[in-house]
Amino acid sequence: MPHMVARSDSLDTPKKWQHQVANPVTDSSELFTLLDLATDAHGDELVGALKASEAFPLRFPRSLIGQLDSGNPNHPITRQFLPSAAELNDAAGYSADPLAEQEAQPVPGLLHKYRGRVLLVTTQVCAVHCRYCFRRHYPYADQRDPEGLWQQAIAYIEQRQQITEVILSGGDPLSLADQKLTTLIKRLEKIPHLTTLRFHSRTAALFPERITPALVELLENCRLNVVLVTHINHPLEISDQLPAALAPLQAAGVKLLNQSVLLKGVNDGVEPLSELSEKLFSAGILPYYLHLPDRVSGTAHFAVDDETGKTLVNGLRRRLPGYLVPRLVREVAHEAGKTLIG
Length: 342
Ligand SMILES: *Cc1c(COP(=O)(O)O)cnc(C)c1O
Ligand code: SF4
Known about the structure:
The chain is of the alpha/beta class. The chain is built from eleven helices and nine strands.
């Protein structure tokens, strides 16, 4: 099994993750060279990638490059982060905001769709840009001042007793420095009706270095129940370092769940999905959701239909214990929760 995340022990831990997060490959020409795709055979793909990254910038994790098969744009990791001409196609039924998230924002950056829980778009920054991202058209530029927006969000939560859980999402909340997270969490802890704090993070698994002692301490001392929902789509994303990096979080009482997106050409098979569930379990994480992709413009080439999704999950049910079978869901605009499929 290749190591997904190269270790460089010469850097101290916090600096190491900040360097990785701050230093992705952002230029398609450079990426094609690094992945050995800069040959005549891939010339059209490069033109498409350059165009696609104008609409949604390229952020490819540099630390992963050494672990990918060179010359293969369809490696299950590469495909998730490599821009492609297919993103420029306008497919029928696809739009910028199919979930009507813009309507569900009582204050900018706070989504209140489900009764007892709110989702805070904590930051606009992600360590990586997943090409299938359902928030790729989110007007992040409107929220230049996240801390100012947090104030408004906190005031909104304080005024509503029915809200018991705050979900920090984004962007990726773990792309914030520990100091900023501390400020936010200390503030949320003071709201008496909150019981639970949840993180949705892609960074946690891709960069185990992000799980710093300071982060563990912050969450260990938090009054709220803490849940970390990792975002892992393929078993190759789980590095050998991840279980050890997560162990202190578990010891601190943090519950670990995973959500995946079902993506054509990435994980749409019983084999990768069952291996994913087993590897997650070995790392102390339980599978939570398997999302059918949202119909967001530029992502139709990743679409998997409901029937295929149901067949795959039935296949998992025959192979795995029930607690390793994720719930197959789709998000439907204006529904009071995720919609279970099958
Ligand atoms: C997915 C989502 C949640 C969380 O839903 P759960 O079913 O509790 O995981 C909350 N708010 C928004 C806006 C969401 O999209
Ligand atoms: S980490 Fe999540 S929010 Fe960020 S680009 Fe990927 S899917 Fe989108």
